[in-house]
Design brief:
It is a single chain. The protein is 35% helix and 15% strand. The protein is an alpha/beta fold. It has one domain: Alpha/Beta hydrolase fold, catalytic domain (Rossmann fold, 3-Layer(aba) Sandwich). Strands 1-3-2-4-5-6-7 form a 7-stranded mixed sheet, sandwiched between helices. β6, α7 and β7 form a beta-alpha-beta unit. α1 packs across α3. This is Thioesterase.
Length: 246
């Protein structure tokens, strides 16, 4: 697939299922890259690379959810050509909900499953203070507190100057986007960190409003970035979900 949006670390033309993985705010395909050799053998991993990162560093990062959705829908044929599952962490979870909602409206083939990791339900209001438009030093200080950006990167002034526009853009989407509640026909599995104080029980269980099926919630040790802290356990659970579909 010769397209900058999709990164396929280990192409598998005979795969029966594709898993599309969406990063959190400020994240890149590198988050999921190590998964490629440990996924179910009949699953092809496809990573999403939006503007502002990796090979697309020179492109302005999107500041609205609809921009991400529009680009994905422009490649709807590839997205839906095989049975597929969508997974996202944090902001990525809200992206997969929004794109699935549009696929329903387009009468397109739908994901067999959604895996929403580390995110409040997208129709619930965020109770966090907005940070994307803070002055430089205050914004960087908030990034330290969130503990999702490596400390060595935050302390590298030249790299941070390059990355700050991307981080601000992603946080703008994360903080300003709120979905209209829509009940999807797709099953949803929810991943949550035991110590994630950013998401209330009401926001977590709000995912139930968005599917015709009973949601399945899996809890992991760690905070908001348990996907990194509990990588092996998360991947094991992902494979369990996929094995029921392949």
């Amino acid at each position: 697939m010769n397209n900058k949006l999709f990164v396929i670390p280990k192409p598998n033309p005979n795969a029966k299922l594709r898993l599309f993985c969406f990063p959190y705010a400020g994240g890149s395909p590198a988050i999921y890259m190590p998964w490629s050799s440990e996924l179910h053998p009949e699953v092809e991993l496809v990573l999403l690379q939006f503007p502002g990162r990796g090979a697309r560093m020179g492109e302005p990062a999107y500041v609205e959810m609809q921009h991400k959705v529009d680009e994905l829908l422009a490649h709807q044929a590839f997205l839906t050509e095989k049975p597929y599952v969508l997974m996202g962490h944090s902001l990525g979870s809200r992206v997969i909900f929004e794109v699935t909602k549009h696929l329903v409206e387009n009468n397109a083939p739908l994901p067999r499953h959604l895996i929403a990791s580390g995110s409040r339900a997208p129709h619930t209001a965020s109770v966090k203070e907005r940070i994307y438009d803070l002055p430089h030093d205050a914004f960087v200080e908030e990034l330290y507190k969130l503990n999702g950006t490596p400390k060595e990167l935050l302390e590298h002034k030249e790299l941070m100057e390059l990355l700050l526009p991307l981080l601000r853009a992603d946080f703008q989407i994360a903080e300003c986007y709120r979905a209209q509640a829509t009940t999807l026909p797709c099953p949803i599995t929810v991943f949550h960190g035991h110590d994630d104080i950013e998401i209330s029980a009401e926001q977590l269980h709000g995912w139930q409003d968005l599917t015709e099926h009973k949601i399945d919630i899996h809890y992991f040790n760690g905070g908001h970035f348990f996907i990194n802290q509990c990588r092996d356990e998360v991947l094991k659970t992902v494979n369990q979900v996929l094995s029921r579909i392949v």
